[in-house]
Structure formats: C-alpha cells, structure tokens
Amino acid sequence: MGFQGFSLMFVLVPALIGLVALFMLFTAVRNLLRGMNLASRGQRTTGRVISANLHISGGKDNRTSTMIETIEFTTDRGQTVRTTPLRGDIGMLDRSGQEVPVLYDRDRPERMIAPKNGRSLSPWGPLSKIVFSLVMLGFLTFFVVMSQGMLSLFPF
What we know:
2 helices; 44% helix
C-alpha cells in the first residue's frame, strides 16, 4: 500500500465512524423534539400497560437493559390504540397492568409517550447522546486534521 492508500485510510475510517455519530446525533435530536412536542401539544388520556418486556441489547461486555411497554388507550375520537411509546423514561420500572398517563398525536395516535411523571419526558437520555455524538465528531475532525498534517511530514 502506497502513501496515497495509507493517507486515504486515515480519512475513510474516521468518515465511516463519523457517519455513525451523525446518525446517532440525528436520532437523538429527533427523539428529543418528538418527546417535547408530544408533551406540549399531545392529547392527554389514560391508558393501561398491557405488557412490559425487558429488552437487552449490546454485546457480551457492554449490555444495556430497557423496559419496553405495550400500552392500550382510547383516543378522544373513540379509537382503541395498542402501541409502544416512541420514547420512554421509565428505566427498569415494570408498570404492567397499571393505568398510566398517555400523551398522543391526535392525527397519528400510534405516536405516543407515557412519561413516568405524567407530564413530560426526561431530556437526559437524548441530551447525553447528543453530547456524546458532538464530542465524537469533534475528536474525529481533530484526528483527521492531525493525521493529514503528520502524514505530510513523513513522505514515503
């Protein structure tokens, strides 16, 4: 592999990692905005938690556990909806069988949230992902700039 291939590797690998960081940033911002929008403009009702299942993700060394709820509620138009919240803040709390407050989009009632406090979702989950993504993008930019400068000092 010549100098050009070596130099290109120091751009392509961080670019791929950067795409993942941008995707994480985009989804975190979208989740934050959706939660805020539903909390402020959503129709309020009460639903019942039909089931709560523990979802474990990640690898052998890095596992995260999340409780995924299925909630059934009736809209102000009389439609019965059974769905999972767009985003949750309940952590590992199992609310199976309980009545819970629901905030839903009147035009698309399958888009709903069921905040633990009944009013709004905690912003800390998406905000931490946003901060992590921005730090990662900053580091990758620094790495690419520095690697290109270093490679120019050592012509092969």
